[in-house]
Amino acid sequence: MKRHSSPEIAALIPQYWDLTADLTASTVEDIVFFGQITIRMMIRLWRFTAKSLALQIKDVDEKLTFLQGKGAANICKIAKQYENPEFPHVDVPKDSWSRDPEPLDAASINRKRNATTFNFCGWCKYARGDVCRYNCYITASCSIKTHAGLEDKKRRFNTPCFLKEASDKVFDEIRKGLARERERLIEEKRKTDEKIKLLLTLEKRAEKKPAMPAHRPYDWFNVGDSVVCYIGGWKERIVRDNFVTARVINGYRHHDGCVSVCYDECVHSGEYLEGHGGGYGMSRPEVMHTWEFEYLLGHPDFASLWSKKGTSNHLEGFDAEQFLDALAKEAVARSAYSKNKK
Predict the structure, then answer these.
(1) What pLDDT score does 213 carry?
(2) DSSP tag of 120
(3) Which of 231, 265, 276, 284 is deepest in the core (most CB within 10 A)?
(4) DSSP string covering 59-101, please?
(5) Helices and strands in the chain: count of H runs, count of E runs
(6) Which of 134, 89, 129, 94 is nearest to 115 (CA)?
(7) What are the backbone dihedrals phi and psi of residue 115, each rounded to the nearest 5 degrees, phi first?
(8) Pairwise CA distance, residues 72 & 83, whole Å
(9) pLDDT tens per residue across span 188-221
């Protein structure tokens, strides 16, 4: 296998994962140690990035192709194909959370996207913005300029198109900027494709391991799944065990960030399912598939990574050291039981 530098390996981990967990890697073996499931999640995210980059390349390329050989006179001619409206009633709506004046006439409210291209920003094909109402950008910027890497001012919905009066120099700057952006996106897409290729190779070398809690797929737990739950941190538990078995049930926000369970025994004095019910966020390490629990018992090094680096940085109420201590005690107890049984 080709030798890769530490920065290249570190870059395999999706950037936003740094905001949720502390997974790091400097060698291919570090990545392999994460396990197949986590590598697959990394591949899925990089494929999403590659798809997004492909769309961006297409968008910039279309803009560049469209502007080839064109100037202000061409844009003025094209603009005649689109609506060039007036705005008789502009005010702040009573139900608006912002203080931005908006067009309140019926024609503006019902106007479709792209209708004012090259005339006014509000419904222009190339407008992009934060404040949008109906089909109109109340405030926007021109994506032709921003994609070219040129600074753009804040544009109101009724701002006339600057391209109709732009100089040939401005058009040249835009075309050069778009060409640079296209090359940048192509290079980023190439690097992303290389990451996917390498991760696919490493996935084949990796073992099936528990999914990192912070990066579980949304449907990681399904109704009827056998799970083990860590309750060692509970003050309200009425059993001595640190770990209890349960089954996944259809409950609050199932497959939408949460997992509900029915414990096999009564573990608390609450009313939910008469002490048998519980619920967890999807990223909580306290709930795990039975096979995941068994794997963690037998692989303390991975369990340490899983509970310390694979969990969210913003997780509250979970003590990784306490969890690992309980896990170690469970492994010792099982080993002693097995020996006594013999």
Answers:
(1) 96
(2) B
(3) 284
(4) HHHHHHHHHTT--HHHHHHHHTTS-----S-EE--TT-SS---
(5) 10, 12
(6) 134
(7) -65, -30
(8) 18
(9) 999 999 999 999 999 999 999 999 999 999 999 9
